[in-house]
Model the fold of this input.
Amino acid sequence: MSAHSISKFLSFAAATSLALSPVAGAAQEAAGADAPLNLPANVSVLGNANPNVRKATAVVNGYVITGTDVDQRTALLVAANRQGIPDEELERVKMQVLRNLIDETLQIQAAQAQEMDIPQAEIDQTYARVAAQNFEQRPQAMDEYLRSIGSSPASLKRQIQGELAWQRLLRRNVAPFVNVSTDEVNELIQRLEASRGTDEYRLGEIYLSATPENAGQVKANAEKIVEQLRQGGSFVAYARQFSEASTAAVGGDLGWIQLGQLKNATLEAVAAEMSPGQLVGPIEIPGGYWIGVLIDKRQVLMADPRDAMLSLKQIQLSFEPGMSGADRNSKLQTFLQGIGQVRGCGDAENAAGALGATVVTNDQIAVRALPEQLQQIMLQMQVGQLSPPFGSIDDSVRVLMLCGRDDPKSAAGPDFDTLMGQLEDERIQKRAQRYLRDLRNDAYIEYN
Done:
């Protein structure tokens, strides 16, 4: 497995929390070693008298999964949720983490049974690559980070082992038996060509199965997940941990689809009205509840205007510290009046200098790289025009001048090999789900 694919499941832990400031050690804040603690003469222990003894949470074909294993893996998910997870939610999260650990153990055991052990050196090498991507070539820094959030290097390495083992199993036992015919690919190409110009959607999903008996509880759980997502939780992380759809392995990403592929009139109607970034749900569908997010939207086989490359000049007016509000307003009004007199991009530097502003030029920036609020504004502008001013009088105010635009060429027709690969991947994922289900059915699992 590539370091990129490993970093996807790390993204809900280290990669999303690299901005955290170092936490001072408790020892730095504690009193001196010989300071009195005022301990009672007789101590009544209310908890576990031996904190080094951990009760097993489950035994999977003889392999023990402890409470510590669950806690350390849960810590990765908690770290990804910048808003934190309420205490009342943690038990539900831990139950899902336990299910994931059971599946992971089954995958590792299945690989070992077929003499496909993952060498420790390969696990360590992958771990080091992840550290190199996220911690500037310093595995020790990632070790310290994992411990600081209540996890451990061993927990992440176990997850890496599971991922590598499962991918190896699929390559040997599933992928060679997945066949996609030339006729199937050609038929798909014809359907795409016939739908050229129609809308297609890239959706993320979280699916929770329900029965008439537990529908109320499942819906309540789904609503809690939506609440956490609205507070900033990672959709990818929640999909990986909680979704029961086959897309859970890729963070819930359905890829680019047309609405008819959802095969549910309710979901089709909801998705058609969604805007990129919008979260919806939970929506009741046959068999359970669905939570969705619209990642992006485009037209089939048509060039995306957001791929246009722009040449921009940013004219920025900054305010000196200590300026009064009246002086700031006066300086801003002078700037706004003067900027409207700029005669095209060639005059920008001179005009800006006269107004006490600065100019920064970028000759190759894609529309989609701009903040979303500016994208539609820039797409409506002509060369030489200025955007509305934006920013803050407390810091700086800016305008963008459009100095050039290279529109994307029309999209080429669908690539045969790419489409075949997509169809193969879809079938591999479906068979992988059945494979894992069979492993569960044949397993001996004892819960404590």
User: Anything to note?
Assistant: Confidence is low (pLDDT under 50) at residues 1-36, 43-54.
